[in-house]
Amino acid sequence: MDRLSRDQEDIAGVFKRMNYAGVRIVTLSEGEVSHLHVGLKGTMNALFLKDLAEKTHRGLRGRVEQGKSGGGNAYGYDVVRRLDANGEPIRGDRTINLHEADVVRRIFRDFAAGLGPRAIAFRLNDEGISAPGSGAWGFSTINGNRLRGTGILNNEMYVGRLVWNRQRFIKDPDTGKRQARPNPDSEWVIQEVPELRIVDQDLWDAVKARQASVSASSNTRDTSSPDHFREKRRPRYLFSGLSKCGCCGGGYSMISGALLGCSTACNKGTCDNRTNMRREELERRVLDALRHHLMDPDLFAEFCTAFTTEMNQLRIELPRVLWRRNDPRGKKDS
Fold first, then answer.
1. What SS3 state is found at 167?
2. Are 262 and 252 in contact (CB under 8 A)?
3. Coil, helix or strand for 86?
4. What pairing do the DSSP bridges indicate for beta strands 178-182 and 167-171?
5. Are residues 146 and 252 in the same domain?
6. pLDDT tier at 90 (50, 70, 90 boundaries)?
């Protein structure tokens, strides 16, 4: 039964729908699956996943306490691939990438000298310097989040300090997407790795001082409010996340209180589209087009036919996609 799902909610939903359709679930080990199997085995399978996650976490913690990587790799470092005496791969070792290390030091020097993250990103993109993940440099790539230790300017690895377990990830039950949640400072694992230092202490301190200065000058809100973080979230509008740049395909998002613009052009400088539009004007044009064109009886009938065809095709493909997601063999074949 765990081949279907190890999630209690998912397996209960599958069983309910199969039962409604008059389809029995039969396994080699349990025979015909009943409500009792769903309740007990569903709980056991969920506990198995929880126990596996805890064991994996303990293993990663032990690796980090030895000064090795706990997963992932930061810009400026290469993964060391070598075997031990028994021919087994040695995991978690890293070495400094000299070319990327020069780029990291340049970013720190430019920021300390007064350049902003967006200006730094524009320069790096103009010079064709590869960014992390082989993408383009952006504001968030450099600036990141100080509290979470993300972004080039906040990565303590560059001063020889490995910080692990800053945050945990929880899956949103509605969207299936992972969301990061910060862990208390007491749960962080900090290990000194001086051999991996890229930035000297004076330069690091200069950057931290400028970050504090910029933060103090821009932070005029009352952070003692319990709704502080919710208030800082950008409001969602009618077409939030749906507007795209016609030149590069990047998102068209709010760049000021009333204007929409190309996010790629604004944050990375790799798109030449500098056309901005008022949000109210965009919404008016789209709604007018829908009202005058889609509401035409012939066009509406054509839309309904195309929509129904597409939805039926997706419903046909859904079981196969779900099976591949839950079956390791399916993942290898896909």
1. strand
2. yes
3. coil
4. antiparallel
5. no
6. confident
Q: Are 330 and 324 in contact (CB under 8 A)?
A: yes
201 and 184 both lie in a single domain: yes
Q: Is residue 230 part of a domain?
A: no
Q: How far apart are CA 308 and CA 320, in angstroms?
A: 20
Given phi > 0 = left and psi -120 to 50 = alpha, else beta, which region is 110?
alpha
pLDDT digits (tens, 9 = 90+) for 20-67: 888 888 888 778 888 887 888 778 888 888 888 889 888 888 888 888
Supply 15's token pair: 């069983």
Are 197 and 275 in the same domain? no
Helix then strand then coil, % of the chain, to nearest 5: 50, 10, 35
DSSP 282-309: HHHHHHHHIIIIITSHHHHHHHHHHHHH
pLDDT tops 60 at residue 12: yes
Query: Which of residues 41, 65, 89 is at a domain's end?
Result: 65
State whether 163 and 284 are in the same domain: no
